[in-house]
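tl;dr need the bound structure. longer version: we got a ligand (cytidine-5'-monophosphate) that a collaborator sent over and nobodys looked at where it sits. i said id run it. heres the input, straight from their email, havent touched it
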Amino acid sequence: MTQLAPVITIDGPTASGKGTVAHRVAQALGWGVLDSGALYRLTALAVLRSNISPKDGPSVVRAAQELDVVFHAEGILLGGREVSEDIRQEQVGNLASHIAPNPALRAALLARQRAFRVKPGLVADGRDMGTVVFTDAPLKIFLVADVQARAERRCKQLIEKGISANLADLLGDMRERDARDINRAVAPLVAAPDAHTVDSSNLTVEQTVQSILDLWSVVAGK
Ligand code: C5P
């Protein structure tokens, strides 16, 4: 039997630093990365660009099935157009969280996500990586940070990119988005029973990455 490539899953609320941490952990191990939120954001962007109503479930699912997406080293192409910046907009993230509860949409994106599992290994970040998509992952992380710290980080990131941002608005949006992700019936944001919770509120990115690499050393050494 061929052994499946190992996966480290990193789930957690919005702006908990999952993306940056996942990339750094993957880099340290020489593994690939799956940013599963990007697939929900890409679907949201396709919905916006095709003027599909987000409430029209079957059309949203079709948009996901037909996503013409290429992930490459420098960015993401949707229908041949570079969209890495576009999918990071707050409006797209919010729409992603509105369409994400649809079970048929989640099912449509499942195979695309699992296809990222190739050797030597994968670091997968999202909301349901450890609970649904890679339930057999040998290491599962639930990355949390208090909402104020997350909103401040996101605000700083946006301002650095020259995008105007208001802390109070971001805080409100973030609380609403977390509530939608936590309270949905299918694949809610919850720690897998076998996940290790890492609170990054008072940790630097380097310290967070190191704590995950330390946990991996223990698992890999078994
Ligand atoms: O992580 P990110 O902010 O890019 O995700 C955008 C939205 O996509 C989330 O708020 C969530 O609703 C949805 N999502 C999801 N499952 C995942 C990843 C993201 O439902 N695995």
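gonna send this back to them w/ a short note. Strands lie at 7-11, 32-35, 69-72, 75-78, 81-82, 122-126, 139-144, 196-199.
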